[in-house]
Amino acid sequence: MIGLKRRERRxxxxxxxxxxxxxxxxxxSEYRARVIDISEGGLKIDIEEPLKMNQEIELxxxxxxxxxxxxxxxxxxxxxxxSRRVMRAGLKFVLTPEDWFRRGRELSDAGNYQEAIHALxxxxxxxxxxxxxxxxRGLAHHKAGNQEAxxxxxxxxxxxxxxxxxxxxxxxxxxx
Length: 176
Hints:
Elements: E1 4-9, E2 12-17, E3 21-26, E4 29-39, E5 42-47, E6 56-62, E7 68-81, E8 86-93, H1 97-109, H2 113-126, H3 131-144, H4 147-159, H5 163-171
Antiparallel strand pairs: 1-2, 2-4, 3-4, 3-6, 4-5, 5-8, 6-7, 7-8
Helix pairs in contact: 1-2, 1-3, 2-3, 3-4, 4-5
């Protein structure tokens, strides 16, 4: 299991690795890997088992509270080191709709509306029933000056029963 502490490096968040191993699962088997580096987007590991490009694996990691969390990741690169009989691999975390939604909210709160719209669009693409994502994408469109797109998203959220979207549209005299 990996113990993680947040620290800043190179304009994106990286984690300081305090316990340098992670459990990896795929095809019904579990393997232990040595962690070289970890960031918000993924991690670099050394593992004695062969991996394939684009292979999806589950990583069992320790969260801040001492519990375990399972994250999915995909192999994006690897190098086989024959002298050590180990594969060094780069893994990219697979983002869930909740990850994209959270990222969109954070970007919007920071004033990065175009990036927020992109993240919220990914949340919607992965979970088209997420009425809150339509609401927040509509709000980001509004703040970015895209009024037609804002109203369209607010109507979609309102039509799915989101009360805040319904209230916002009613205040403007717009039916959904």
